[in-house]
Amino acid sequence: MESDIINRALQSTRGISESMRALDSALMEEGIRKRKVTDAQVVLPHLLSGDATFQAIEHAVDDLVKCVPQDHDVLILVDDLTVHDARFIGPHTFLFEGVNPEGRRAAVVCHFSTFFVKIHVFACMF
Asked: Which residue of 25, 40, 58, 126 has the smallest Cβ count within 10 Å?
């Protein structure tokens, strides 16, 4: 009888230990999930920004300017606009100012995910 009480107490103790391990594991998993949510909140604004797009445009233009002959121009085209000035209005908007095909001043305002930029090299006519 005494050994039955001891065995039941030991089984109960094992059950408590298993429950404690399960609780520790659940708390650890919850901490990992919370950390992932926090990490995503830190990364998400960067992913939803046009900063990388603007840097890519600058890099492409700079690379072309370095390698073209001096009697050539590097032109940036957005839609039908020949761009004279490009501005990034963070976190996600671009303003391109320049001239349209008719030679009139024009501008394009767009979200970083909605435009297509063409960068060309042209020989100067002057």
From this structure: 126
Calculate the CA 62 to chain-centre distance.
22
Same-domain status, 1 and 41: yes
- The structure's pTM equals 0.60
Q: Which residue has the higher pLDDT, 83 or 123?
A: 83
Look up tokens 């100012």; give the residue.
97
Per the CB < 8 A criterion, the answer to whether 82 and 75 are in contact is yes
- DSSP reduced 3-state for 34: helix
- Please, what's the b/e burial string for 57-68 (b: 16 or more CB within 10 A of its CB; e: otherwise)? beeebeebeeee
Considering the domain architecture, whether residues 37 and 56 belong to the same structural domain is answered as no
Cβ partners under 8 Å of residue 88, min gap 6 = 50, 51, 54, 94
